Amino acid sequence: xxxxxxxxxxxxxxxxxxxxxxxxxxxxxCVLGLATGSTPLGAYKYLAEMCAAGELDFSEVxxxxxxxxxxxDGSHEQSYRYFMDTNLFSKINIDRNKTFVPSGxxxxxxxxxxxxxxxxxxxxxxxxxxxxxxxxxxxxxxxPDRVFIAQTHPVNLDESTIDANARFFSSRDDVPRAAITMGxxxxxxxxxxxxxxxxxxxxxxxxxxxxxxxxxxxxxxILQLHPDVTVIFSEN
Length: 236
Ligand code: F6R
Fold this sequence. Notes:
Elements: E1 2-6, H1 9-26, E2 31-34, H2 41-52, E3 62-65, E4 67-69, H3 80-87, E5 99-100, H4 109-122, E6 128-131, E7 153-156, H5 159-165, E8 178-181, H6 184-188, E9 192-198, H7 203-211, E10 229-234
Parallel strand pairs: 1-10, 2-3, 2-6, 3-5, 6-9, 9-10
Antiparallel strand pairs: 4-8, 7-8
Helix pairs in contact: 1-2
């Protein structure tokens, strides 16, 4: 594991965008696994700038996102589809038909999960998966559990996740209690993984995840078993 500590969020964002840009340059028709949340925003901004400057071409890229809130349609401002459209896809020359986010409004989320896994398999898997990490150790919305769940699946969100994400909603009550998330199989089968974390509140969980035992109660700890993981952490 390549564990990089930097001093600022700007530095983290520049490094992360550099790694994603390198992936797109090396394999223009790559499959990028993407994340939402606060942490990737800086990297997405730099990617948009590189694309606008003609330094990066996303026209052949396909993207698959990690997760979506249950019950939120893509036009809902807090949906992850809306987040991706607003913060990245509308700012780069990616073909929107090649951007995938699991549907949170599918009538059968378990079935939607099966279809999403088939889609990822059909694309030949993920070349580079970008991840954030929750304070409870979640990656995607794989919450602490007795087991690691392989498939894309519906999930009930932990109280700590609801607390953490309440900042994006007008009230805590508005945060959906459930979601659909890519499972550990597609994440672990990604050829490369880049996990980014920012802030003092992520320090303890990073230590648990990467210096402690591999334990489904700390979902990110499974990444210790992946051969090509880069973690970039900035405490500030
Ligand atoms: C988002 C996702 C989550 C976030 C995590 C960290 O698609 O899958 O696992 O990466 O909750 O979120 P931030 O970056 O807001 O701290």
